[in-house]
Amino acid sequence: MILGFPKSWSTLSYLTAICFALPLGAICIQALVPDEAVFGHLMQTVLPTYIFNTLALMLFVSLGALLIAVPAAWCVARCDFPGRNWFQWALLLPLAMPAYVVAYVYTDLLDYAGPIQTWLRQVNGWLSPTDYYFPDVRTLGGASVMLALVLFPYIYLLARTAFMEQSPSLLHASRVMGASPGRSFWRLNLPMARPALAVGAALVAMETAADFATVSYFAVPTLTTAVYDTWLGYGSLAAAAKLSAIILLVVFCLIGAERFARRKQELFQKQTPITSHERYGLSGYKAWLATGYCVVLLLLAFGLPVWILLGYAWDYFDVSWNQAFWEYSLNSLTIALVVSLMTVVFALLLMFVRRCSPREVDILPSRLASTGYALPGTVLAIGVLVPLSYLDFALNDLYAYFNQVEPGLIFSGTLFVLIFAFTIRFAAIAIGSIENSYKQISPSLDMASVTMGMKPSAILSRIHLPLLRSGIFAAILLVFIECMKELPAALLLRPVGFENLATYVYQFVSDEQLEQGALGAIVIVLVGLVPLIYLNRSLEQGN
Question: pTM, whole model, 2 decimals?
Fold first, then answer.
């Protein structure tokens, strides 16, 4: 903290936080607008189904991701088996896959006209669907499986870290008492990792609640698809805002549960990561069972979809490699780069004020600006469009009052709205990354700088920025990738005639023509691998 820190910096941080919190306030205000015609009709007909499907999907995906991730995390953290060093980071690769692309790939494989059912009919002589039973993938259960395959790395990463940080002395004590590895897992490792698992499950549930493309493709009506349909189908912004408020209630309940789980976590022993000789050495069929499980999981969640996409991209390369592909790729790269730089600038401002200001209230702006990440894309779109539309109308009325040519929708009808929404959505990522880097900088450096007569701007530029380089780089990287993958907000807020890679690929998916959009999907996946490689290097350094 710096005594006499200028209030102008604090004022600027509060103005930034207020702008970032506008969507949340706009949704709450818009939800109070009466709309008995549309929302009343929804309440009497389909709203219970929307709520049930959303909650059921969140539950099934969270449970499925836990069942998938926990065994893999424990094996990698506590056991030695063939391929362990590779699997510890390779199991993060599914995070690079858009869920709707995985959903299309498996639908194409498992549908009646797909290769698997066709082969079964040829082998067994079946002539029609009535001759045999095959589960329908386009159901709530099918959507749950697809999302669990893509989202399980959230839980895997947290569980792996929790298992590795458990004290080796507890492991030694359990061995002395004659506990088998399985008994130690159930009685010791798993209970101690429960807070981390709760946090991971909450993150998976939040991502599930925010998903639009997968459930839309599988025709599973949820609150997220209801917002989209109500806004564009019924033309009722008030009803869509009311549905968004319900989603926000669910999301904030999950955030509260996650905070509660983290608050209860208490560690009474020094966290010393285990070494190789302290792991269980698996041999024989147990070793190959662990390796086989990780291989199958990685193939199903990443390897098979990528292989099929590469095949599509190769077969349809001449169709996909065109001017439109380059244009949409450039659009995605430009938007992602601009948003990445803007979020880092705002995050630096907010965290610098939080670190240096002696006033306790200056902690609030950084927390307030982080609320945007809790807003699903469809909800954020409404929250952004409402205030910007009012601003556009007010500006046009002002021009008309002075008999000037009205400028039109310069905020809500241009790329400004998309950049603004993405910046709000992903500012929390940049804030978190820079906050972690700030924790590594000793406060004594700030005190020494003030003693030498340096102003706050000089402290930031000459002391903090060089020491924050790794955090800034990580923030730019992570925000860039999230912008490349973000779909719901882009679908709802893009200007007329504007497409990026995410919307371009989704249009082919929704038209059952992913083959022609496979090249764009491969680009999204390849770009998504960059932060995973960076994270892998961090994991290796941590071990």
Answer: 0.84
